[in-house]
Amino acid sequence: MSAKVDPGAMEVMTLGEVARWAGGRLEGGDPDQVIQKVVVDSRRLLEPGSLFVALEGPRFDGHAFVHQAFEQGAVAAMVHHGSRAEFGEGPLIRVSDTRAALQAVAAAWRARFDIPVVAITGSNGKTIVKDMLAKMLGATCTVHASPGSYNSQVGVPLSLLGIRSDHDVAIVEVGVSHRGDMARQVRMVRPTHGILTNIGSAHAAGLGDARGIAEEKSLLFQDLNEGHLVLSQDVQRQFSDLFHVKPRTYDQVSGDQQGRADVVARGVAARGAGWRFELAVRDLGSREIRLGVPGLHNVRNATAAAAMATLLGASLDEVARGLRRFELSEMRLEMHTTSAGITLINDTYNADPVSARAALEVLRNFSGGQRAVAIFGDMLDLGARAADAHRELGQAVARHRIDELFLVGEFAALMGEAAVAAGMSPERVHRAEHLEELHRMLERELSPGDVVLFKASRTVGLDRAARRLIESVAPTRLFIDLGAIRDNYHALSRRLGDEVGVMAVVKSFGYGNDATRVSQLLEGQGVQALAVAYPDEAIPLRRRGIRLPILVTNVQASEADKIAKYDLTALIYARPVARALAAQAERVGKRVSVHLEIDTGMRRVGLLPEDAVAFAREVHRMQALSIEGVMTHLAAADDPDEDAFTHRQLDTFDQVLAGIRAAGVPTGVVHAANTAAAWRFERARYDMVRVGLGLYGLHPSEAVEDQARDVRPALCFTTRVLHLQQVAPGDTVGYGRSWRAPRGEARRLATIAVGYNDGFPRFLSNGGEVMIAGTRCPVVGRVCMDVAMVDVTDAGRVDVGDEVLLFGRDGEDQIAIEEWAERGHTISYELLCRISPRVRRIFLTE
């Protein structure tokens, strides 16, 4: 397979071409100015030649950030409203609709390339199938694949605009949420090949039943040639009338069944944390496949990807090799903090130019005022683009003003040369010939407070250097899947619709999970505001560059200076606090934003309904205060037995709101719903909802879980086995001799490295469970401060150092934190907040 491009086409576009493709008018600037990249996020340091497109949505408007985009290095901006005075002096392309214009530009760019373009759609599995296919083809082709989960009406055009003339094949993920979405996607993508992963309930609200979903998704494949479409046998059987070409089908069968599909996975057997199976492809034969990722559904995903890979010319050996090297992308980037105070960003799963630049963004954004250290090895499987890609990444390192750069590998050396040529001091670029030399350098150079990124292709072995530093991290760890938090936020946003915003509650250290990192993620995803309990929780967020409105729910008059200094929003319901805030605001010459709290039945804090209008009038007269919102707190929205009480609270709240407005006082943003009400009560959503625990995929009750089926748990608490021993029949274990080995048989016990000081509750003594190697093992004896004992007699082979799942999901294994809560007669909120600082937080993201 070889790349083909229109001989008149170049690998870059010009400002004049973009204006023409967009149907816009160029104001200022040189029409021959080269545009290297199109971006929609002004908060990042932009690459040279970047065009910023100001998108507008129900809860955001990129036009407010055009000036910032120019400051970040954009050479031009595309806009559809606003005056020159608002934007500064940079060149503008004026269009009637920036979103439609972005799609038109992407369509024109895509039309330049005559290469296979594989479009992948389906209700789920799109990203994994895309990544698997890219891995299979990458050994012999230069592949462009959509970054992350870029499959929306904005993500797809950005993906297409990444195609270059040296790409042999492009793989584009395509998603839809409503009728009519796919027609716009088709005009841009114009696929030559397609994969439909499955038809499920995702986005059913916008597309109807399964038939409606299949009809919309099938539009993507209307113009394919015979044999260029891959479908599962089930989809072909159900919806064959929707597809106008004969597809290549795939299936997964049990036992020794042969199956009727063109590509079949058979004899599937569990193998460690993954699977072993035989892949049979019609006319090509079969191969044994080893897939090192959990989840039986990933066998089907692998079979779908293999069906397309072999259609595009990949051999069965290349398919097998690609799957053997594949790992789930959502586990790529991990953040650790060592006992020496060094933050490690471990991203050694794989490396390509897109993920490498994204990792640099993470390093730059999270380092704040700390020293940023980047450690890079070679990026492999880039074919003819390898040298140029490494040089471009070196230039990006210099632009991001990374403090120190360490390099291992021949291609990585080109990064260093390019970084120096782009202005980085040679004294800050360090080259190691091998990993042992790198480790000696790091031991000498790293200091407490440093934020360190490790990035390379897996086979380079840079993960071993990262592991040597990570070994100092305590064995008990809380893994926080930022990808799950992101997806949960978007699942909730889809349920709420475009008119309702989300305030993320990140109080109490983000429910024990590090408010800063969670807030940084959510700010990038479009959340409208944050909420904390006390001003001191908000100050670190401001110092780390979080610019969102931050509502502080507990404010004392003595802390008015913090509210004003850090541009926080105070929740108020008492005159002394309001007066202190107004006085402080006048002293510093600014207005302070406030929300009013109405007590409609919680009886905790807040204004009684009969006092609310008078208080609102008084605050409204205070020139230095601005009423930006009114809220109440629902006492029992998670309990169906109390729904009548919840509706009475909302009735009272509506009456108060009407009275405040009748008095001529603006109510600003109105919010009442917590996580439970956001899912269960449409009338409680108003302008915004406050969601905390729900972002982590956890539920305050079964009634909420029934409504929130699109979310997934984001937390996993683990430790390690410290010691193993045999105990004789009748032996007692632990303090108070509270557990005795059954008479007649010896038992094998493991001491695990977690105790109640870590957040492993003492009420799990003598009966709680942990999971080791897929087997539930009971806690025996009393949980101690630093360790606990569990019975592993029935768990098969267990060794010192083996991982122990305390709660969360590990592949197919799961222990829910709700099990702990039920045993302890408490709630998951309390248990999360008990997890101590001694437990290392490790963040997983894409």
TrEMBL record:
<comment type="pathway">
    <text>Cell wall biogenesis; peptidoglycan biosynthesis.</text>
</comment>
<dbReference type="InterPro" id="IPR036565">
    <property type="entry name" value="Mur-like_cat_sf"/>
</dbReference>
<dbReference type="GO" id="GO:0047480">
    <property type="term" value="F:UDP-N-acetylmuramoyl-tripeptide-D-alanyl-D-alanine ligase activity"/>
</dbReference>
<dbReference type="Pfam" id="PF01225">
    <property type="entry name" value="Mur_ligase"/>
</dbReference>
<comment type="similarity">
    <text>Belongs to the MurCDEF family. MurF subfamily.</text>
</comment>
<protein>
    <recommendedName>
        <fullName>Multifunctional fusion protein</fullName>
        <ecNumber>6.3.2.10</ecNumber>
        <ecNumber>5.1.1.1</ecNumber>
    </recommendedName>
</protein>
<dbReference type="InterPro" id="IPR035911">
    <property type="entry name" value="MurE/MurF_N"/>
</dbReference>
<dbReference type="GO" id="GO:0005737">
    <property type="term" value="C:cytoplasm"/>
</dbReference>
<dbReference type="GO" id="GO:0051301">
    <property type="term" value="P:cell division"/>
</dbReference>
<keyword id="KW-0131">Cell cycle</keyword>
<dbReference type="InterPro" id="IPR004101">
    <property type="entry name" value="Mur_ligase_C"/>
</dbReference>
<dbReference type="GO" id="GO:0009252">
    <property type="term" value="P:peptidoglycan biosynthetic process"/>
</dbReference>
<dbReference type="Pfam" id="PF08245">
    <property type="entry name" value="Mur_ligase_M"/>
</dbReference>
<dbReference type="Pfam" id="PF02875">
    <property type="entry name" value="Mur_ligase_C"/>
</dbReference>
<keyword id="KW-0547">Nucleotide-binding</keyword>
<comment type="function">
    <text>Catalyzes the interconversion of L-alanine and D-alanine. May also act on other amino acids.</text>
</comment>
<dbReference type="GO" id="GO:0005524">
    <property type="term" value="F:ATP binding"/>
</dbReference>
<dbReference type="GO" id="GO:0030632">
    <property type="term" value="P:D-alanine biosynthetic process"/>
</dbReference>
<dbReference type="InterPro" id="IPR013221">
    <property type="entry name" value="Mur_ligase_cen"/>
</dbReference>
<keyword id="KW-0132">Cell division</keyword>
<comment type="pathway">
    <text>Amino-acid biosynthesis; D-alanine biosynthesis; D-alanine from L-alanine: step 1/1.</text>
</comment>
<keyword id="KW-0663">Pyridoxal phosphate</keyword>
<keyword id="KW-0961">Cell wall biogenesis/degradation</keyword>
<dbReference type="GO" id="GO:0008360">
    <property type="term" value="P:regulation of cell shape"/>
</dbReference>
<comment type="similarity">
    <text>Belongs to the alanine racemase family.</text>
</comment>
<dbReference type="InterPro" id="IPR009006">
    <property type="entry name" value="Ala_racemase/Decarboxylase_C"/>
</dbReference>
<feature type="domain" description="Alanine racemase C-terminal">
    <location>
        <begin position="714"/>
        <end position="844"/>
    </location>
</feature>
<feature type="binding site">
    <location>
        <position position="785"/>
    </location>
    <ligand>
        <name>substrate</name>
    </ligand>
</feature>
<dbReference type="InterPro" id="IPR000713">
    <property type="entry name" value="Mur_ligase_N"/>
</dbReference>
<dbReference type="InterPro" id="IPR001608">
    <property type="entry name" value="Ala_racemase_N"/>
</dbReference>
<keyword id="KW-0963">Cytoplasm</keyword>
<comment type="function">
    <text>Involved in cell wall formation. Catalyzes the final step in the synthesis of UDP-N-acetylmuramoyl-pentapeptide, the precursor of murein.</text>
</comment>
<feature type="modified residue" description="N6-(pyridoxal phosphate)lysine">
    <location>
        <position position="507"/>
    </location>
</feature>
<dbReference type="GO" id="GO:0071555">
    <property type="term" value="P:cell wall organization"/>
</dbReference>
<dbReference type="InterPro" id="IPR000821">
    <property type="entry name" value="Ala_racemase"/>
</dbReference>
<dbReference type="InterPro" id="IPR036615">
    <property type="entry name" value="Mur_ligase_C_dom_sf"/>
</dbReference>
<dbReference type="InterPro" id="IPR011079">
    <property type="entry name" value="Ala_racemase_C"/>
</dbReference>
<dbReference type="GO" id="GO:0008766">
    <property type="term" value="F:UDP-N-acetylmuramoylalanyl-D-glutamyl-2,6-diaminopimelate-D-alanyl-D-alanine ligase activity"/>
</dbReference>
<feature type="active site" description="Proton acceptor; specific for L-alanine">
    <location>
        <position position="735"/>
    </location>
</feature>
<keyword id="KW-0413">Isomerase</keyword>
<dbReference type="InterPro" id="IPR005863">
    <property type="entry name" value="UDP-N-AcMur_synth"/>
</dbReference>
<keyword id="KW-0573">Peptidoglycan synthesis</keyword>
